[in-house]
Amino acid sequence: MPVDLNGYWKMISNDNFEEYLKALEVNIAIRKIATLLKPDKDIAHDGDHITIKTLSTFKNYNMDFYVGKEFEEDLSGVDDRKCMTTITWEGDKLVCVQKGEIEGRGWTHWVEGDELHLELRAAGVVSKQVFKKS
């Protein structure tokens, strides 16, 4: 059974994020700003319907999807691309595959205790973020 992701999560660590943004070909000015931010995650999880809001003082990004259903994702708030995205459960991990211009792009969310883990992947680069439930 999938874990319950509901809640408000505050970032406590952000490793290798600038390298991840470089792999996405994000310009240097945006990369420098983004690496200084500590965004929060506000997640509403109801069955197969999940909404993930990434909130910061610079930009917000909302993702609203149904697990297992492919959709076109507009990443204009991230790197100004569109991709075909599918998110599925693999055990207790929520796994996203984003098919588009960047090879191997996607992410994985999972919970350990009161921490939400996020692994971001693009073009062979991996960034790891950890959030604490508040």
How is this structure best described in words?
This protein has 134 residues and is mostly beta strands. It is 12% helix and 54% strand. It is built from two helices and ten strands; from the N terminus they run E-H-H-E-E-E-E-E-E-E-E-E. The protein has a ten-stranded antiparallel sheet. A hairpin with a 2-residue loop joins strand 6 (82-90) and strand 7. Helix 1 runs antiparallel to helix 2. The radius of gyration is 14 Å and the shape is globular. The mean pLDDT is 94.
Oligomer: single chain
Low-confidence stretches: none
Main sheet: strand order? 4-3-2-1-10-9-8-7-6-5
- Spatial extent as radius of gyration: 14 Å
Query: Strand fraction band?
Result: over 45%
Q: What form results from the Cα inertia axes? A: globular
Major beta-sheet overview: 10 strands, antiparallel
- Which structural class do the helices and strands define? mainly beta
Average pLDDT across residues?
Answer: 94
Distance between the termini: 24 Å
Tell me the series of helices and strands, N- to C-terminal. Answer: EHHEEEEEEEEE
Brief overview:
The protein has 134 residues and is mainly β. The protein is 12% helix and 54% strand. The protein has a ten-stranded antiparallel beta sheet.
